[in-house]
Each structure stands twice: as C-alpha cells, then as structure tokens.
Amino acid sequence: MENFEFFNPTKIVFGKGEIQKLESLIPYERVLLLYGQGSIKKNGVYDHVKSVLKDKILFEVSGVQPNPTLEKAQEAIDLIRQEKIQFILAIGGGSVIDSAKFIALGVHYRGEAWDILTNRELMLTQSTPLGSILTLPATGSEMNCYFVISKGTDKLANGSPLVFPQFSILDPSLSFTLDQRQVGNGVVDAFVHVMEQYLTFPANAPLQDRMAEAILLTLIEEGPKSYMTNDYNSRANHMWSATAALCGFIGVGVPQDWTTHGIGHELTALFGIDHGRTLAIVLPSLMWVMRTEKKEKIKQYGDRIWNMKVESDDDVKIVIKKTEEFFHSLGVPTKLKDYGISIEVVAQVTDRLKKRGFAPMGEREAVTLKKVEEILLGAIE
C-alpha cells in the first residue's frame, strides 16, 4: 500500500425530512441559494428551504447548467462580493455543487477566475464556506473537494481542500422527481468513479479493494431498481453508494486511473453528451485496449463482481460485455455510433489533448495518444 493522507471534514445529514435541520447547520446571516434550471421549485424543495431559512437574508443565483459554466459562476462571484454574502448553499446535483466550490474560491481570487482551473500552481488560501442539499445522486461532489467547470468547449477539473462542503443533506426522497435518464446516468457515474480507483493494478490494499467491490455490487443490485422505481430504500442505497464512491476512502493508498474521465470530458465538451454517458462509452473500450496492463485487476473484477474466471481474451470480452449489459439495464448506450458520432472523433479528441499539453494518462502513465486513438476507435461501434 502506498503512503497517504486522508482528510474529509464534510458532515453528512442523511434521511427523509432532514432539511428541517438546515437552519442549525448554517451559522451565517447572509446566504446565497445556488441552484439549477428550476426543478427545485417544481418539487417543493425551494419553498421548503426558504421556509426553514426564513430568518436569514437570502440571495439567489439560478440557472446552473448540467455542465456548469464560468459565466454563471462569475455572476455568483460578483453578487457575493457586492452583497457581502457569507455562505453558499448549493441545491441540486453535482453540477450545482461543483459550481459552488469554484465560486467559493473565485470570490477570494483577484485574478481571472478561470486561472483556478488552468494554473495548478496557484496558492489559494481562502474560500467562502458552503453546504449542499443533494437532489441527484451521481458525482459524489457532496462529500469531496473536486469540481469541474466549462468555458466554451473547454471542460476542466481541479480541487482544493478549502472547498469541502461543511455539510451535505442527503434525502433520497428529494430525487423522486428525477427522470429515468438522470437516474441511470447517476448510477453509471458512481460505478465508473469506483472503477477509476479500483481497476488499476494490485497495491496490497485489500480493505480498499473490498470496499470498492462492495460499492460496485451494491450499485449492480440496487441501481436498476433505483432506475425503474422510486423505491425509497433502493434510491437511498444508490445515493449513499454514489457518495461513498468518491469521498476519498476507497482511493487512499492505491493507484488511480482517471483516463475514462479525461476522454469523457472531451466528448462532453465536443458533442454535449451527458457526462455519465461518456463514461459508459469509454470504459468498456479502455478495459479492452488496456487489458494487459490491467490484467490482474480485471481477473479480480471478473471473479469478485461477475463470479467468473478470467483466463483468456475471450473471458475479458465476456467481463466487458457484462459491464456493458449493466449500463444498458440503466438505459445508457455504450457506443459512439448511438450518438451519430463516427471516426472523425479520433482526430478531434486527440488534437484537443495535444493542444492541452497532453501527458500520458492512467495509473502507469501508459495511456499514450496512440492508446487514446485505439480506445476511441473501439468505442465507435
């Protein structure tokens, strides 16, 4: 096992009706409500929050998009500075929470806010405190310090320990108004978050492996039920699994990949494909192209998750097929052709990676541009 440091200060408040505790969780007077396209007004969450926080001075920024933009974040940054707002409450899914984190840092950075994404050498020392009410289980942003922001056709990620939410309220019943597409995408997103930290190479970290496998098995068991119905227990298990997938504890002391996300972000930026769906496109092809480098963990994955022995390339194909079938059970396609995208995508994505100063990706830095080409070619059909 590799050396590691682990820190996660986010308080989780889980269960039905826990919004009632919101006022006691925010010891500030001037609060920004940050939310998306207005679904929280349709499902009653907006009115409930305003009722609970009736003694606070509330400000609002709405319209955060599924791929949160710099422009919308800058609108909130300007408002917080102007009104001396003390706390950000993000209400929504990962996009809203990601945006809140970026805003929290941007308020206190006096240069161009986009620098926070492009300059990893910045010394960021202050942020506005934030909390969240989760309505879409997927990204795990409610219990980590990472964020992804878009500017035009650029989609970049970063993180800072300054932007862990102080608390996150997780009420599974708040997700009941989601459509099936959002639920299916969320299950896939959580599943691939685990795979990025698990499907690498053995690091003599059996506890992390077993915890990762527990999340994968729970998502396989509960994900389709969460997708098909508003069963509270299935949605609760889905929600908690998505949080556990990226709150840090399964990734400590082990190698991590993140190639699937790196390529997936480019597909979203270029073609507007939902984030979770890009992951379902890339992961199966990556597993095949990188099967030699990942052979030991693919064997373990096949054995412990799909109850099969992986001894040949044909067995690897079966494991990949089972993974794809799971994604299909959630209504999520796994090929670029399903989105009308053909071979031109290979040059488009690799050119963007080159311009971005591409360095080999993956747990062994073995995913070269040539490997990216192979992964994309394998993902077409």
Question: What layout of secondary structure does this protein have?
Answer:
Blueprint (H helix, E strand, L loop, with lengths): L10 E4 L7 H4 L4 E6 L3 H4 L2 H8 L4 E5 L8 H14 L3 E6 L1 H13 L8 H4 L11 E5 L11 E6 L2 E6 L7 E4 L9 H19 L7 H23 L3 H14 L13 H13 L3 H15 L5 H12 L6 H16 L15 H12 L13 H12 L1
Parallel strand pairs: 1-8, 2-3, 2-4, 4-5, 5-8
Antiparallel strand pairs: 6-7
What does the oligomeric state look like here? single chain
How far apart, in Å, are the first and last alpha carbons?
38 Å
Structural class: alpha/beta
Question: How many domains comprise the coordinates?
Answer: 2
Broad CATH class of the largest domain: Mainly Alpha
CATH level-four homologous superfamily name of the largest domain: Dehydroquinate synthase-like - alpha domain
Compute the average pLDDT.
Answer: 97
- The side-by-side strand order for the widest beta sheet comes to 1-8-5-4-2-3
Number of helices: 15
Description:
With 381 residues, this protein is of the alpha/beta class. The protein has 2 domains: 11-174, Rossmann fold, CATH 3.40.50; 180-380, Up-down Bundle (Dehydroquinate synthase-like, alpha domain), CATH 1.20.1090. The protein contains 15 helices and 8 strands. It has a 6-stranded parallel beta sheet with strand order 1-8-5-4-2-3, with helices on one face. The chain has a two-stranded antiparallel sheet with strand order 6-7. The chain is globular. The chain starts with 10 loop residues before the first strand and ends with a helix.
